[in-house]
Amino acid sequence: MNEKYKDNPTLIARAQAGDEEATEELFRKNAGLVRSIAARYVGRGTDFEDLCSLGNIGLLRAIRSFDLSRGLAFSTYAVPLIFGEIRRFLRDDGPIKVSRAQKRTGAAILRARERLAAEGVTEPTVSELATAAGVSAEEVSSALEALTPPRSLCEYTLPDESGATLEEMLTDADAPEREFEKLALRGAIEKLPALWSKILLLRYFRDLSQMQTASILGLSQVKVSREEKKILRFLREELS
Predict the structure, then answer these.
(1) Quick one: pLDDT at residue 3?
(2) Which of the chain's termini has less CB crowding within 10 Å, N or C?
(3) pLDDT value at residue 222
């Protein structure tokens, strides 16, 4: 067995018994596996770190449901769950909800664009696309808007990353003060223990409920509520 994973069974047994330190150790030991899977989905409209977070949810589910008595390698069992969690999000719960009808319209528009390009029309208008795809101009606009991935505020305005970011282009007179506050908050968040960081990510960055967060982390809702209060108190003290 790979030296890196040889103590997985012991850690899994401890994690399934409620040992949070064992769970965190499993996350650390399997971080490379999660990141390698997440890397396959880069460029589909979701940030790499978000893909890793989704992969970690799949990893956590693998930890909680793994049957130690079957003698199967944990990584073999975990891989499809990690893949499945990422694929499910990209298919059903992506950053922008896209209906199947819009996806079909979008596919028809892309095929129409390819046909027009072959005929020498490299920049077709909405009307030309609508005619070629056999849909209305309104349907073309709606489908293209829905299928366009959101842009990160950290994205550079120039391809060589020499320009300003989108966030910098949108700042106003209060930007320097807010930037200082963000840096201070980021520093405070970096001091959080691993469990607190995960709760903060799921509750305030993924906008999950306490019950959903508790389910993902294998905790009780009461435990999440108590830890959340501790987190907010800690951050207030750090920023005061």
Answers:
(1) 41
(2) C
(3) 87
